Structures are given as structure tokens and as C-alpha cells.
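Example for reference:
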Amino acid sequence: MIDTFRLGLFVCALTATASATEPMANHYFEVRVYSVTSNKLGGVLERFRDTVEPVRRKHGIDTAGYWTSGTTNGDKFIYLMTAANKEEMQLREKEFGADARFKEGYAASNAKHGKTVDGILALPLSAPADAKFDFTANQKPRGFELRIYSVPPGKLDAFRNRWRDSAVPIYDRHSLRSIGWWVADKMDADRNNQFVAILAGESPESIQKSIAAFHQDPEWQ
């Protein structure tokens, strides 16, 4: 099973300073997927832009990227955070939550927009030692795709090796850039491992064309 989130066009959506050549396997990552209440995406984006992101940066929490996704189940708001380790992230998140500016902004947002989020999926992520990341900003808008694969027990190493050695190089040949890949620190409801990946292309439409070409590639087949 795979959950796919096709993400909108963004300029400089990835804001972390690491490039693909810098080792980040020892970093702690966490992806959060907000299920947005109907017609409240504007309120979520306003709160994140005006309150959440500035206060997070004040407390040293790095948002590597953030996106929106319109899906069959409604809008999603997705962001990826990174820190040196899990303990540091938890400490800074505690400071963030106690910050007076955040509390005031959150209260003001609730008063203005009411309920904006129906649910939150939070996935702590581990980066394999051989994973590569590309968080460099792009001057032109790009489309992104977040994938969460459900991998049966005992198959994770085989899946990860196939992704690294076969899928990523072939995606690249078809103009799809691997932003990064991770393994979630917790299993899904069916006790399967969760493998998380982010791809980037020129636009959401070009991503779908590239994926079709990928599946027809003789090397992949």
C-alpha cells in the first residue's frame, strides 16, 4: 500500500541549508500531515506563516519544507522538520509551545477561523546512513510528491535497497529529483514498516508524466 500526496507548486519551498552532498543521516526528522477542515486551508496557512513558522525559527526549529495538497479526502498541509536529534527537537518544541507569541497567535487564529484541522499524522523519521538529501532551494516553482509506503515485515532492507540502487537513478533520468528518503520510527496500523520519500519535478502534471515514463523504463521493468 502507498499513500501519495501530490503537492502544489512552490518557489523555494525547501528552506534547509543542507545540500545533497552533506551528510544528514545523523539528523532527526519529523513529517507532519494535517487533515484540514473543509474550506479552512487559508486559515491554516495564515497561522503557520504569521505565528508558527516565525516562533519556531526563534526557538531554533528548522522547517526543511512545507506544502499543501488537494486530495480526494480534502486539503492537506504538510511540513518536514529537522534537528540534530529527537531530544533537541522535543526540548525546542516544548519551548515553542510555551512561547507567549505562539499562544496569542494561536488564540487569535482560533477566534478568527474556528476549527481548522480535523487530524494530524506525525511521523518521526530515521535517515538511513546511505540516504542523500537535496534541500537546496530552487528559483523556479516546482511540484512535489510525498509518498508513504507500507512495507511488510522482513522486506524493509530489500525495499530500501531497490529504492536507492534502482528507483532513484531511474527517476532522475526521467526528471524526477529525490529530495530525500526515510524510515518511520513507528509502524502503521497493520504493523507494517513505513518508508517515506519526497520527489520533485517541474510541476504536478510533469511529475505524473515522469512517473508514467518511469514505469515503462526497460531498466525498471
User: Anything to note?
Assistant: The chain has five helices and eight strands.
